[in-house]
Here is the input.
Amino acid sequence: MKQSFLIKYGEIAIKGKNRYIFENALVDQIKFALARLDGEFEVTKEQGRIYVHTDGEYEETIDALTKVFGIVGICPTVIKDDTGFEDLKKDVVEFVARHYEDKNFTFKMMARRAKKTYPLDSMEVNAALGEAVLYSFPETSVDVHDPEVKIFVEIRDKIYIYSDEIKGPGGMPTGTSGKGMLLLSGGIDSPVAGYMVAKRGVTIEAVYFHAPPYTSERAKQKVVDLAKKVAVYAGPIKLYVVNFTDIQLAIYENCPHEELTIIMRRYMMMIAEHFAKADGCLGLITGESIGQVASQTMQSLMCTNEVCELPVFRPVIAFDKNDIIAISEKIDTYETSILPYEDCCTIFVAKHPVTKPNLKSIKKSEKKLEGKVEDLFKEALETVEVIEVK
Ligand code: ATP
Ligand code: MG
Here is the structure.
């Protein structure tokens, strides 16, 4: 074991018994993130703190940890046995020697004595350790008001020394806020939507509608790849792949073409809701944004929403495309999203789709599917393929 990290997490949502749920979920997610890397690691909970001990590569470890929701800060930490105060002085001096090539900095000692039997109190520890550092490195100076470096020394059963804090992603650990069903297309918006909701602790499942032979195997693979990229943050994703071809053809043959997209979207929502309910999901998630395309005007959203009983969460509803793209670049889904494979929606799309669909008219058009679509609907549910994406 070469390196330890103190994991800091937000304290707000974790009062009472929620604390255990939060911490256990965080430990699980850290394990999931590190299992992908080479090297042995251990995640421990010690006196209300979470530590990672690993012999894995430093940069890789940091990179993986900065993707675990719930982590606020990652502190590379030196852990020592308590072998007396003289040893502690040496350890702190060695810590400074190793961590700071350039010793021209101001610092403040931040000792915390959690072990009350320790012979010195925090003030005394600070004074003596500060003196030891100043003595060994005369270039340093103390600034208690606005130091460039804070050196934390926590005296517990063991002694923990750290100074840097690398920023974590924040949010809540996946698995602390129930489950949601993401409608995941190959586009830019829905992976971002899934990422955003996962950041609030929601476990993500996903459903993708494809239309073979109109959409290809590689279009499907693209969605699996996107799910993988979201899973780096969100944890494993159960992905339903629904064959939507026959339903789309039925709509195409029986309904007015300008209403195709809306009716199709309504069927997508119904099918997604079916799997969502079966798995105990508490809501659907889409990448819709007001006004982005004809099927995302307020009127269109109202029509698609109308078929659902579960709440539909649309985290990017008020985002401009550029803002969504910025997130997709940050989470590394953008390059995959812009691969130019055909999408089931674009294939049957009308030249002039309604931008202000009328719900009554849509429902009237859907009547023409009666007696034709029910079996296809059932078949779509029965022939679903389930992929466990990790
Ligand atoms: P995205 O970039 O997410 O594909 P978009 O701007 O292309 O969004 P639409 O194609 O209108 O928008 O889709 C709106 C939303 O409907 C998507 O964000 C997604 O949640 C869902 N959706 C669209 N097509 C599919 C599909 N083939 N499978 C699963 N969900 C889909
Ligand atoms: Mg799309």
User: Anything to note?
Assistant: Residues 62 and 269 are 39 Å apart (CA to CA). The chain has two domains: 3-167, 179-389. The pocket of adenosine-5'-triphosphate (ligand 1) is lined by residues 183-185, 187-190, 207-209, 268, 286-288, 292-293, 295-296, 344-345 (CB under 6 Å).
